[in-house]
Amino acid sequence: MQAETDALIIGTGFAGLGAGIRLRQAGIDNFVILEQASGLGGTWRDNHYPGVACDVPSHLYSFSFEPNPGWSRLFAEQREILAYLEHCADKYGVRPHIRFDSPVSAARFDERRGGWDVTTRDGRQYRTRALIVATGGLSRPSYPQIPGLQRFEGKLFHTARWDWDYTGGTRKHPELHNLADKRVAIVGTGATAIQVVPFLGRYAKQVYVLQRTPSCVDQRRNPPTDPEWVQSLKPGWQKERQANFQRGAIDGYKPGEPDQICDFWTEINRNLNAKFAVDGPPGSIEDYMQVREIEDYLVMERLRRRIDAVVKDPETADALKPYYRFLCKRPCSSNDYLQTFNRPNVKLIDVSETRGVERMTEKGFIHRGTEYAIDCMIFASGFEVSYELKRRWGIDVIDGKGGLSLYEYWADGFRTLHGMMAHGFPNLYFTGYGQGGFNGTTTEQFSRQGYHIAYIVKEALERGAKAVEPSLEAQDAYIEHIRETAIDMTAFQRECTPGYFNNESEEVADATGQRKPRSFFGETYGPGWDAFQKLLQDWRDKGDLEGMVLTT
C-alpha cells in the first residue's frame, strides 16, 4: 500500500496531464498519475499510423496555459503533438508524478477514511483523497464483429496498433515498402482512414477500401506556419482564436464577428452570419433552423461536387458522396484521399447493405457472393466511444458510498453536478464529455475542467474536509436546469447515418421514458460554452462551494 496522496489521476493524455498541471498551479503537489502504458500521451502516443495528424487547426490544439504558435504547419503531425505533450510534462513538473505501466482495475471509496483505494491490474494499491478519471474518449480500439474473422489466416491489426514491422517504414519515414506484394483491405472510411488510405494506395499491390458510410472530405489547406504571423501575435491570441473557432464551429458567431479560421469547420456559421447581416436576424429558433438547414445543404452539395471533380469513375464518385447533414459524422479534410481512388490498384467496396463486412474466410472476405483474397486486413474502425462506460474506461470497479457502482448509478444516463462530480461518490472527479459545456477543441475542454476540479480539491483541503460531494438536491437542480435549457437534437440525430455521434442509431430511454439516441457528447449545455463557463465562474466566485456537502 502506497502512502496516501491528496489526489490520484488516471491517464496521461491531454486530460490527465492537464489535470496534473492544474493541481500544481493550485499549489497541490502531493499526487500521482497512473498511466496504463509505458509512455505518456494517450491517443497521441497510441496512434502513430502513417499520415496521422491533427484535423483541427493546430494553433488551437494546445493548452490555454501553454499556447504554441510554433506548430510547423496548420495541421501538425502526431510526432509534433506528442513532443508538445512531453514538453508540457517537463516544463510544468508533472513527469515525476507519473507511474507508468499501471492500468487501474478498481477504485473503491473508503467511507471511514474519506478517500479512495485504487488497485492496479498487477495488484499494487494506492490510497488517495481525490480521484480524477481522465482516461479520455479515444483510448480503447474498437474492432468490428465480422462473422468468420477468426478463420482468416492473414495479418490483422488496428490502426491504433500499427504494425510497422509488417508494413515497413517508420513513424518518421512512413514508406510502406513491405506492402509492395500485398493485397490489403482496410475497414472504415472515417477520420483515420482518410489519412491512412493514401499511403496504402501509394505502396500496396492492391487496396480494398471497405466503406459503410462515406465521409465528407474537403480540401486541406495546410501551409507552413508563417514566422511573420507568429511575430505579429499579441498576448491572448490563442484564447481569442479558440473562442472564435468555438462560435464558428459550434455555437454560432456574434453579429458582425469575423471568421478567424475560415475553413470547412466554420463555413456554415460564416455563411449564416453573412446572410443575417443582409436579411436581418431570424425571428425564431424555428426560422433559424430552417435557414441553417439550407446552408447545410449548400455546403454538403459543394463537397459532393468536389467528389465529381476529383474522382474519375462515376460509380465510385457516387458511392463516395455523403448524403447526410454536416456534423452527422466528423468532417474531414485531405488533399490525397479522394485522388487515391483514381489509382488502378485501389477499389472502393460499399458494404452499407450489410452494415459492414459480410463475412471472412481463410483467404479473405466475402462481398455480394464474391470472395476477395487478401494478405492483410486493417481496422480503421475507431474507438469504443459508443459502448458502455465500463468498457470505454477499462476500469472494472468504481464503487462509491455503500458500495454503489458508478456504472449502475449512470445506467440510465449521467447524473452529475456540472458534469464533473456525482452524489454518492465523494472526492471523485470526471473529465471529458458528460453533462455540461461542450467545446469543439478538446484541449480547451480538458484544460477548463482541470482548472475547476483543482479549485474544488484545493478548497476541500484548505477547509479541512476529508470528503466533498454534491448534495442530491443540488445535483437534481442542476440536472433539471441542463435539461430545461437543452436544445433537442433528436430529430437531427435520427436523420444521421449510424456512427458514434448518435450511438450507432441505437436509442435509449431517458429519465422521462422517451427513447432517444444517446450522443457520444452526453448532455451538452444548451446556452453554449461561454454561458457554461460563466455558470462555473459565478459558482466559484461565491466562494462557499454551494451545493456541496463537506465531511470533516
CATH H-level homologous superfamily name of the largest domain? FAD/NAD(P)-binding domain
Q: Determine the N-to-C terminus distance.
A: 24 Å
**Beta fraction:** 15-25%
Please tell me how large the radius of gyration is.
24 Å
State the low-pLDDT regions, or none: none
In total, how many beta strands? 24
Mean pLDDT value? 93
Number of helices: 17
List descriptors.
552 residues; FAD/NAD(P)-binding domain; 8-stranded mixed β-sheet; 5-stranded parallel β-sheet; globular
Describe this structure in words.
With 552 residues, the chain is of the alpha/beta class. It folds into 2 domains: 5-140 and 385-486 and 525-551, FAD/NAD(P)-binding domain, CATH 3.50.50; 149-219 and 294-379, FAD/NAD(P)-binding domain, CATH 3.50.50.60. Helix content is 33%, strand content 17%. It is built from 17 helices and 24 strands. α7 (237-251) packs across α8 and α8 packs across α9 (285-310). The longest helix has 26 residues, at 285-310. The radius of gyration is 24 Å and the shape is globular. The mean pLDDT is 93.
